[in-house]
Amino acid sequence: MNIHSSLQAEPETIDTPTPKDHQITPRDRRFGRDEGHQPGRWWLNNDPVATAFYNALSLTFPRGEAFFIESVKAFRDVTPEKLQKEIRAFVKQEIIHTREHVALNRRVEEAGYDTSRIEQRVIESLEMTKGRPAIANLGATMILEHFTAIMAQQFIANPQHFAKADKETADLWRWHALEEIEHKGVAYDTWLYATRDWSRWQRWKVKSLLMLVITRNFWTNRYSDTLDLLAQDGFTGFRTNMTLLRFLLVTPGVARKIIVPWIKFFLPGFHPWNEDDRHLIDLAESEFSAALPDGTQTA
């Protein structure tokens, strides 16, 4: 099926649970740029495991978000006007996220870590997407955007994730999280529009298979990447693996706490905005505002 021909022939809108009054606002913020900012090697509560996990995750973002941008942009100009505007805002947010994670990743390297193996794994993963149909890459983006959104919910709702962390680095993650929640429906709505002439069964089957494959790859790679960084600090073996599993599954347990939102993805009628969690955006925004001397927002 020629997706683009179909889209050009039928530019009608589709009805989704995305709030009609919802706005996506790129926030051009910078973190950790002060000359005297020294977060330390283990910037998260002096915990090498927690720090390694978030550093490993950050190292995937610059190339990963470039992939998300291109996957969604491939359908932008043939979608309804409202969705086009949302895609443009999504792209702007992701570009700024990339810039800030490039800066964070530079600090990881300056702390003495060799990130080349992790970066090579990301490159190899993305190489596999070249030559695939645009709809396949959009599907992968839609899946990974759901991952980032449900993790973002945890990062804002549960202060335990960044307790006693370097403030600038923790603020970066919370800022990134609030914008992931804000644009969590864009890739999914683009996917729904691009596949609107598919049967519900076909759409469910494809997205479910993609979710299972990507879930396996996501956690396998993030686990390996975290162990890579931990090994550079001299932490290896059974005890290190158990400590990492405890971090992911027990306390603070980010992997465990996203299991239910992950399962909901497979339910008939699923949509990211079936859960309106804009209060988390407001919560994170209010925290940023309160931290500024004059109570104003940065632009």
TrEMBL record:
Protein origin, superkingdom: Bacteria
UniProt KW keywords: Hydrolase
A Pfam family it matches: Metal_hydrol
InterPro entries with a match to the protein in the record: UCP07580
Keyword Hydrolase: yes
A Gene Ontology molecular function term of the record: hydrolase activity
Region (Disordered): 1-39
Coiled coil: none
Basic and acidic residues compositional bias, start-end: 18-38
Keyword Nucleotide-binding: no
Official protein name in the record: Metal-dependent hydrolase
